[in-house]
Amino acid sequence: MKRLHFLVKRVPILKALTYSCFRFFRFSFWRFRKGYYSIDLPPQNLLVHLETVLKTLPVGQSKLSVTEVGCNSGALLFSLAKKFPSISFLGLDLQASAINQGTTRVKELGIRNLEFLATDVRNYPFSKPVDVLVTSATLIYLKSDELMRFFEKAIKSVGKVIVLNEIMSRTPTVYRSHFFAHPYKEILKDPIFDGFSVDIHSARHPPWDTDEHEGAIITLTRKG
């Protein structure tokens, strides 16, 4: 087993093949798994942070809107929708069964400011404006080029704040495992983010923290 692990890490073809297999099975798992399974995420820290963000947003004539990309069955959104009934929430996720579960629960609880949509974020057009965009351990499934295409589409539709609760590489390059830890400190230097102020702080979630990567809550606030 140790010899196989050494070969996979040292032989480029084996490393690339192993990486491709992990990526294929990971997407298949998220797309086709049945039912809801809890994931080792730090929702409490993110929930508290989002509550603070939403409380500070100015309330205009139009209803504020929040979209979460990779919402699973909506645990975070249900908490926010109950606390902020005047805000409209939308949850997007690749897994149809999770979306169906969230939609069923919305009807059971009679929540009117929360909706769900099953979609692949890589193909979602972001054609409608949204005030706040949220991700949580979602962008770790996107390759570097997919991530930049996501940002190029998403930031055009976001009017106020983007909150990323993600695993971040500690180096200027992407860390690749069965997920991607992107180097957000480098990525956010791209000119497409010039219209946003950036704040990065720890997600305070030990399972995400290693020598290679760390959990981070990244807040992009549109200037002006």
If classified by CATH, what would the architecture of the largest domain be?
3-Layer(aba) Sandwich
Overall radius of gyration? 18 Å
Class by alpha and beta content: alpha/beta
Q: Return the average pLDDT rounded to an integer.
A: 86
Kindly state the number of beta strands: 9
How far apart lie the N and C ends?
A: 56 Å
Write the SSE topology.
Layout: H1 2-10, H2 12-32, H3 43-56, E1 65-69, H4 75-83, E2 88-93, H5 96-109, E3 114-118, E4 130-136, H6 144-157, E5 158-169, E6 175-176, E7 180-181, H7 184-187, E8 196-202, E9 213-222
Helix pairs in contact: 1-2
Q: What characteristics describe this protein?
A:
seven-stranded mixed beta sheet; alpha/beta; two-stranded antiparallel sheet; Rossmann fold; 2 domains; 224 residues; 7 helices
Gist of the model:
With 224 residues, the chain is an alpha/beta fold.
Overview of this protein structure:
- The structure is a single chain.
- This protein is of the alpha/beta class and about 220 residues long.
- Helix 1 crosses helix 2.
- The strands form 2 sheets. The chain has a 7-stranded mixed beta sheet. Strands 6-7 form a two-stranded antiparallel ribbon.
- It folds into 2 domains: about 1-35, no CATH class; about 40-220, Vaccinia Virus protein VP39 (Rossmann fold, 3-Layer(aba) Sandwich), CATH 3.40.50.
- The protein starts with a helix and ends with a strand.
- The protein has 7 helices and 9 strands.
- Strand 2, helix 5 (about 95-110) and strand 3 form a beta-alpha-beta unit.
- About 40% of the residues lie in helices and about 25% in strands.
